[in-house]
Design a protein that fits this description.
The complex is a heterodimer of chains A (298) and B (287). Chain A has 298 residues and is mostly helical. Chain A contains 13 helices and no strands. Chain B folds into two domains: 40 residues, no CATH class; 199 residues, MetI-like fold (Orthogonal Bundle), CATH 1.10.3720.10. The termini of chain B are far apart. The chains are: A mainly alpha (298), B mainly alpha (287).
Chain lengths: 298, 287
């Protein structure tokens, strides 16, 4: 029987140019969906950023990105993201190193990994609330510290609802993210390298300085860049904590959606493009460094 | 400077012995981490019981849990339930789009892989607050004035969440497909007369069940916790509910947070349980 199921089956399963359209049909829903819910909205943003309030083409919106208010909000975002990326990177690295290289009992490593998976998701509204209960004016820890040390840290100038407070809160999802990213890299440090270094007379410090850190550097840098992007795009946590009183890029953009502050949607679009640019740079940097790190840590 | 030689390593204690004790710095670091992570949780639990250590000094009480769990006018269950429905819709849509895509890319269109992976990375490049900005503009007028109705804006929400789930769903499904020989399975099914829909649903799906469940649980955790998009789209989901509660009430939000954290823990625990033996970074959610 010509065109039997067996013949048809064997023909079409081979990657051939006979029926290319079927595979393309198969992936079409994906691209249509992505276009509708991602690329189309993105193009609205791009186009809108080049229009002024009357709908005429202009570059003014991008120029306005340098006005004090906008520039300050970007500066704040960059500062908070950089601090939490580097701080989160350092302590996250130490945490991961502690459980992987520090000789702690095995169960602690598993506990840290599992908890990191959960904690990196505990961002947003619940996280902000949890820290209000901890370090807010009437917070659990605030009261504990004030009682124990007879101080008033509020009077001394500490406030959770500040850039520093926000950074403290952001660490809650930056530490775990760093742990999760750097753990495979730390695993990839072969014991042979350490032993070879020791056999050649290297101290622990020399091993780290000349062997381990150079190998880990791409992973570390990539992870820190990813942490930067992670903090930069955050909105919910900051909004719940500060109510929008600290101008950071994501909150100002959010206010733009509501038509609140600048009454200039074109500028809002330009700000959004600025954010996309920074995030894109971060993701690209991370991807490139990831690929670089895989050289040693296969 | 010491001369290199085998005698040196004999004189030093063997690395294994040192590791059993655990370095002091490691214990200190772990201890600090433990404090940092658990104090906020303890504080939240303490507040959820009415903040007995506070200035008022009331007895610890479950009344605040009762307030949002048992009182008939509480919005807890309607909002959580609706978030759940949105999550299910998102999961179904995401799986329906991702599985055939990953399948076809692996089987026939390997050169599309970088493009598809790039598209699935886009949600990281376009943060939720920016994405929802664009979505509102796109769907506020012709040809798709979805934002005009509640149902329409919920559709936009599901669409947005589906995009948000793509990175995780695609990676999970792709990993699952890599573990099975889809070429042989496809040929075998075809030689038995199966058509393409039958192959994908009847042959591929069952073999990547674990991957699908992992992706589904992560999407569930993300959707239930999400605040930014839901709030700007005006959807009556769990995230905006908790936010509003946090602004209006003192102790109930703590209880809701604990439950929310517990739900996330269960979802992630399910993923860990399913993904035993695999190395996967599962990170995501509202920021």
């Amino acid at each position: 029987m010509a065109g039997s199921a067996a013949e048809r089956g064997v023909r079409s399963a081979r990657p051939a140019s006979r029926r290319p359209t079927l595979a393309w049909l198969g992936v079409a829903p994906f691209f249509i969906f992505a276009t509708l819910f991602m690329f189309l909205p993105a193009s609205f943003l791009v186009v809108g950023s080049f229009l002024d309030q009357q709908g005429q083409p202009t570059l003014q919106n991008y120029v306005d990105l340098t006005t004090p208010f906008v520039a300050t909000s970007y500066a704040n975002s960059i500062e908070i993201s950089a601090v939490t990326a580097i701080g989160g990177g350092i302590f996250g690295f130490l945490l991961a190193a502690a459980v992987i290289l520090g000789g702690l009992p095995r169960f602690m490593r598993n506990a840290l990994m599992t908890f990191s998976g959960v904690a990196s998701n505990f961002a947003g509204v619940p996280l902000a609330l949890a820290f209000i209960y901890t370090l807010g004016n009437l917070g659990f820890l605030t009261a504990l510290i004030n009682r124990t040390f007879a101080t008033d840290i509020g009077q001394a100038g500490f406030s959770l609802y500040s850039k520093v407070g926000l950074e403290i809160v952001y660490m809650y999802f930056q530490f775990p993210l760093m742990v999760l990213i750097i753990a495979p890299a730390l695993d990839g440090l072969k014991r042979d390298w350490r032993e070879a270094a020791e056999n050649m007379g290297a101290t622990g410090f020399q091993y780290w300085r000349y062997v381990a850190f150079p190998i880990l550097l791409p992973s570390l840098m990539g992870a820190v860049i990813l942490l930067f992007g992670n903090a930069f795009g955050a909105q919910a946590t900051a909004f719940q904590l500060t109510g929008g009183t600290i101008p950071i890029a994501s909150i100002v953009i959010g206010a733009q959606i509501r038509g609140d502050v600048l009454h200039n949607t074109g500028l809002g679009f330009a700000m959004a493009m600025g954010m996309v640019f920074i995030m894109g740079a971060a993701i690209t940097g991370y991807s490139l460094l990831q690929r670089r790190s895989e050289r040693w840590l296969k | 400077m010491r001369a290199p030689g085998a005698l040196d390593s004999v004189a030093k204690p063997a690395p294994e012995e040192k590791r059993q004790r655990g370095a002091l710095w490691a214990w200190i670091v772990f201890g600090l981490g433990f404090l940092y992570f658990f104090l906020p949780l303890i504080a939240t639990i303490e507040f959820s019981l009415g903040h007995p250590t506070g200035p008022v000094g009331a007895e610890p009480s479950l009344q605040y849990y009762e307030n949002f769990l048992l009182k008939p006018d509480s919005e807890f269950f309607p909002r959580l339930g609706f978030s759940f429905v949105v999550a299910i819709a998102t999961i179904i849509l995401s799986i329906a789009i991702i599985v055939p895509t990953a399948y076809w890319v692996r089987l026939r269109l390997p050169r599309l892989r970088p493009i598809v992976e790039f598209v699935t990375l886009m949600p990281f490049v376009i943060p939720p607050v920016v994405a929802v900005f664009g979505l509102i503009r796109t769907f506020s007028g012709p040809p798709f004035p979805l934002m005009d109705t509640t149902f329409g804006s919920n559709i936009v929400l599901v669409g947005a969440y589906t995009i948000l789930s793509f990175p995780y769903m695609y990676r999970a499904v792709d990993t699952g497909l890599r573990a099975i020989d889809i070429q042989s399975l496809t040929e075998a099914a075809q030689s038995l007369g199966a058509g393409w829909p039958r192959i994908i649903v009847g042959v591929i799906f069952p073999n990547i069940r674990v991957a699908l469940l992992s992706g589904a649980f992560l999407t569930l955790a993300i959707v239930i916790g999400e605040y930014t998009m839901a709030s700007f789209l005006g959807s009556k989901t769990f995230g905006p509910y908790l936010s509003l509660l946090g602004q209006n009430r003192a102790f109930e939000p703590a209880g809701v947070s604990i439950i929310s954290f517990g739900l996330t823990w269960i979802a992630m625990g399910a993923i860990q349980f399913l993904g035993r033996g695999g190395q996967r970074i599962q990170v995501g959610g509202a920021r």
